[in-house]
Amino acid sequence: MGVRPLLKLGHPTLRERAEELPLEAISTAPIQELIEDMIETMRAHHGAGLAAPQIGESVRIAVAEVRDNPRYPGLGELPLSIWINPVWTPLSDRVTVEMYEGCLSVPGLRGLVRRPGHILLRAMDREGKPFEHEFKGPLAAVVGHELDHLDGVLFVDRADPKTLTFTEKYDKFVENEKRLRVFQS
Ligand code: ZN
């Protein structure tokens, strides 16, 4: 199918808890096609990640891919990643990340969100093979944002409301050093 339409803030599917995917479903053609569509849709919209509910599929799959992004100095890079039935646990409460997040389902808006900055992600890959990966720093926030989608949570729920800003104002008024900060105590 390719690039799929994105659901936007207000669509009830974005607020549902997405279903676990049974292991035997992962290798089926519809799920492999869904993963391909998610990757294509994320790339077409220059997103850092995409969760299946954002294209109307209420299952626990997220994809992410981060290249150095001029809007977020220091975000880092993440090769294309596919996370099926993902869960994360904090590895430390001493590292936190503050980042002006945006979302393909909330176009044109950004807001400052604080998240755990050192986590362990456990998931299955697109072959159904379990793996785990440690994230420290800004990419931990990317994981947190995408996995929130699978529980019906959007960044606007977590953002400090006073920091909400339209993207054009973000580009104009939010200084580079305030866009993304890592705190370590
Ligand atoms: Zn999002």
Explain how this protein is built.
This protein is α+β, with helices and mostly antiparallel strands. It has one domain: Peptide Deformylase (Alpha-Beta Complex). The chain has five helices and nine strands. The chain has helices spanning 29-44, 138-149, 155-158, 167-173, 176-179, and strands at 49-51, 61-66, 78-90, 95-103, 106-116, 118-124, 130-136, 165-166, 180-184. A five-stranded antiparallel β-sheet has the order 1-2-3-6-7, sandwiched between helices. Strands 8-5-4-9 form a four-stranded antiparallel β-sheet. Strand 6 and strand 7 (130-136) form a beta hairpin. The chain is globular, with a radius of gyration of 16 Å. The site of zinc ion (ZN) has 5 residues, from helix 2.
What are the key terms here?
185 residues; 5-stranded antiparallel beta sheet; 23% helix; Peptide Deformylase; binds zinc ion; alpha+beta; 9 strands; globular
Runs in which pLDDT lies below 50 for 5 or more consecutive residues are none
In spatial order, strands of the major sheet run 1-2-3-6-7
CATH class, please?
Alpha Beta
Bound molecules: zinc ion
Alpha-carbon distance between the termini? 47 Å
Order of helices and strands: HEEEEEEEHHEHHE
If you consult CATH, what is the topology? Answer: Peptide Deformylase
Largest sheet: 5 strands, antiparallel
* Structure classification: alpha+beta
How many H/I helices?
5
Provide the gyration radius in Å. Answer: 16 Å
CATH architecture verdict:
Alpha-Beta Complex
Number of strands: 9
**Into which percent range does the helicity of residues fall?**
10-25%
In CATH, the homologous superfamily goes by the name Peptide deformylase
Approximate shape: globular
The percentage of residues in β strands lies in 25-35%
Mean pLDDT: 96
Overall tally of domains = 1
